[in-house]
Design brief:
Blueprint lengths: L2 E10 L2 H17 L3 E6 L13 E6 L2 H9 L1 H10 L3 E9 L2
Antiparallel strand pairs: 1-3, 1-4, 2-3
Helix pairs in contact: 1-3
Length: 95
């Protein structure tokens, strides 16, 4: 069963760190089997929804998504990001 990696950016503190992260993270995630499905600001937000940058990435499985996050290449991207953002990141199994 597939899985989704969802990142919601609560606060961007340092755009340069985010840019450095993106240059490393994109290739690392794609090499690990991830497919970027959506990224950007919401077109609409309802109920208690907040207008925050959101990234949705598809994987073949939860194990593949977790392995991508734990990979040395992605950990290098996280090190570049450092304290540049405050975000909520989760992996969920597809229905």
């Amino acid at each position: 069963m597939g899985a989704y990696w969802i990142s919601i950016y609560r606060e961007i503190r340092d755009q340069a760190k985010l840019d450095a992260y993106a240059e490393l993270a994109g290739p690392a995630i794609r090499e690990a089997g991830g497919t970027f499905l959506a990224r950007g600001m919401p077109a609409a937000a309802y109920e208690d929804g907040l207008v925050e940058r959101t990234v949705l990435i598809g994987f073949d499985s939860v194990d593949a998504a977790v392995a991508a996050h734990e990979s040395p290449a992605y950990q290098e991207a996280l090190a570049a990001l450092g304290d540049g953002v405050v975000r909520d990141m989760r992996i969920i199994e597809a229905a």
